[in-house]
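Appendix B, example 12.
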Amino acid sequence: MPETNRLFNMSPDDESIDLRDLLQCWDKATARLQETHESLRKEVTRLTDELEVKNRELARKNRLADLGLVASHIAHEVRNGLMPLTLYTGLLKRKIGTDPETNRIVDKIESGLTVLNTTVDDLLHFTADRQPNQTYVPTSKMILEICEDLAPQFQAQNVQLRLDLTEQEMLLADKDMLKRAFLNLTLNALDVMPNGGILTITSQVNFGHLEVEFADTGCGIAAGDVRRIFDPFFSTKSTGTGLGLAIVQRVMEVHQGQVSAINCPDFGAAFMLMFPMKAAKAAA
């Protein structure tokens, strides 16, 4: 039978079968379009979120760059003024002899100058824009040395120290910068536990990173402060420069690492440093 005659002589059953096939194809095409639309929507959302994060990071770096120029200039000027003041205070103390009241006043002056010098040091560390002088540093040994140096303060504040450190990794890092970051986190923990507590320092290799954690049993981080604690000059303490954690973050950035902070389940807070494993090697 010719093809045209066959088409015009289709039975009702044949027509219903063709219609079902057409509807099935339409449903499949619609489902694929819906899946594609949902996938594109998710990708657009992800890219938008990433762009927002990058824009925040860029804005922060621009603010820090401007702040760094001003802070660096102020720090150098203040230090130039502090040097002769410290010298003259020492000379005055030797001249006044043993008068207790005058010595007490001079001691207060020296204490004030020491605080100012510490502030200047923090500013200079924060604004220092130099490439790290990298060598292989035994991280566990450095942490132990810092804790030994601060042992009298731990004892005076009744703070217990618990260490669980890996001794198998060495970090390719700037030794002075790394020590500054570890020291700042240790001092930060001591500041939030003036009447006793526990500082737990751990290190381990996990998910391609060398992780170092400082966990205290202090008052924790207020909900409104979580996103601000690494901002320069932000502090919840009545004393200090508010640069300690900002310096830690700067050190991590130049080492291609990350620092994060969370509240512990029971009480206290934990600060996690994550260094990429490409910067570490097994200790000899």
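The chain has seven helices and eight strands. Residues 134-282 form a domain with the Heat Shock Protein 90 fold (CATH 3.30.565.10).
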